[in-house]
Amino acid sequence: MNKILKDEFPFAKDILKGYTALICGASKGIGRSSAQMLARAGAKIIACARNENDLKNLISNLDGENHNFLVMDLENIDTIENNITKLIEDFGDIQILVNNSGGPPGGPLLDNNIEDFDGPIRRHLYASHIITKALVPGMERSKMGRIINIISTSVREPIDNIGLSNTLRGAMGSWSKSLSRELPPCITINNVLPGFTDTDRLGSLSKSISERTGKSVENVRETWMNGVPIKRLIDPLETATAVTWLSLPSSGSIRGISLPVDGGRMRSI
Q1: Cα–Cα distance between 108 and 104 in angstroms, integer?
Q2: What is the mean pLDDT of residues 6-31?
Q3: What is the distance between the alpha carbons of residues 12 and 122, in angstroms, rounded to a whole number?
Q4: I need a labelling partner for 90 at 20 to 30 A (CA). Which of 21, 46, 65, 75 fits?
Q5: Cα distances (angstroms) measured from residue 244 to each of 21, 101, 251
Q6: Per-residue CA distances from 220 to 105, 188, 206 (Å)
Q7: Which of 82, 87, 79 is nearest to 46 (CA)?
Q8: What are the pLDDT digits (tens) for 109-167?
């Protein structure tokens, strides 16, 4: 077990007991780590992703009991509302939502055609909106709701060679900030902005840049690390710690923020 969970778990074990968390993109990376951290804190987990085997593996290794999973493709927005409605009927109201999905392929923005926006915007903005609308009434009934969106530091500082991702993350940031002014007082919505995190997504981006530029993957990563004060990749469980903190009942005054977990890479205040 990772040291962050085994020896340095920063929250009381049952601090989220009695709460249910729906985590999208839970089969790997930050989504998987968020499921592990929230389960460790006592929440009942409903893990959502496309790969059933990965979800079963995750659920079987979580702390606690009565966790469940939902196989769902976030790009298939016509099925999302029915899936979430049935989920609530089967398992009750959900108090914590982690909106999270894989980013689109890298590359200059002008290399993209209009149709390239369709899938990514469905699984990010559209899916998040549909799921949030479905869960808010139950959060109101529970008198506690926490919505956390996993976005990117590109919300504040666009990152070279991922123009489509920059565009979509910016849309998510504006959507979230708008909702922070509209949601009932008992429900918060916040964004977590991951920096260079040790996930499969970062691996695919470094490989893509390597193929386009002729630089080695090692050189691409070295260039990245030269701009990060902590001089290392971020463990996804570090990001999940921020997700868990924003999920706590005691975090009700934290609303409409974008919290970087980037090792100090961003230069903006």
Answers
A1: 12
A2: 93
A3: 36
A4: 75
A5: 10, 18, 10
A6: 16, 37, 6
A7: 87
A8: 999 999 999 999 999 999 999 999 999 999 999 999 999 999 999 999 998 888 999 99
Kindly report the average pLDDT of the chain as a whole number: 93
Percent of all residues in the chain with a pLDDT value above 70, rounded to a whole number: 99
Give the residue from 183, 180, 182 showing the smallest Cα distance to 257. Answer: 180
DSSP single-letter state for residue 83: H
Which residue has tokens 């990010």? 124
Backbone angles phi, psi at 14, to 5 degrees: -110, 20
Tokens for 95?
């108090």
Contacts of 203 (CB under 8 A, 6+ apart): none
Count of positions (residues) in the chain: 269
Encoded tokens for 210: 């390597």
Q: Do 253 and 144 contact (CB within 8 A), yes or no?
A: no
Structure tokens given for 149: 């969106």
Residue-wise pLDDT tens digits, 57-101: 999 999 999 999 999 999 999 999 999 999 999 999 999 999 999
Q: What is d(CA 99, CA 168) in angstroms, rounded to the nearest whole number? A: 14
Confidence band for 48, pLDDT divided at 50, 70 and 90: very high
Residue 192's closest CA among 243, 237, 156? 243
Q: Tokens 């469980």 sit at which residue?
A: 237
Q: Which structure tokens are listed for 79?
A: 């099925």
Please name the residues in contact with 250: beta carbons below 8 A apart, sequence gap of 6 or more: none
Residue 36: pLDDT band with limits 50, 70, 90? very high
Task: Measure Cα distances from 193 to 93, 126, 197, 251 in Å.
Answer: 27, 19, 11, 18
